[in-house]
Please model this.
Amino acid sequence: QLEDSGGGLVQAGASLRLSCAASERTFSSYSIGWFRQAPGKEREGVSCISSNDGSTYYADSVKGRFTISKDNAENTVYLQMDSLKPEDTAVYYCAAKLIATVQGMQAMCVMPRKFFGSWGQGTQVTVSS
Model:
């Protein structure tokens, strides 16, 4: 089970931090990722982190601006989003899959449709210009 939160309305250039709280089992064994879907667009992977060694993946559009991290004490995955742009506006979802390899984590991030059949409510991020 995952619970995502932290969205909001901000101006361009601002920062937000999204949180994805997981059960201890999910946090320790699953690769976890952040995905987003903007109106009229397909859902895309934003950033993912592997369960085994903490390897990360970032979409090109967010590299250098977003940082994914894990807090072992809180069983929470964070997505720190800096220098937000209007094109970052979307509903953001966290999702997890029992994937142990880095290659699998990357595939999960690049092709979420192949790995996930359903999604939670997500959290809305709106960036105004």
Remarks:
- The first helix runs from residue 24 to 29.
- The first strand starts at residue 2 and ends at 5.
- The chain is about 15% helix and 45% strand.
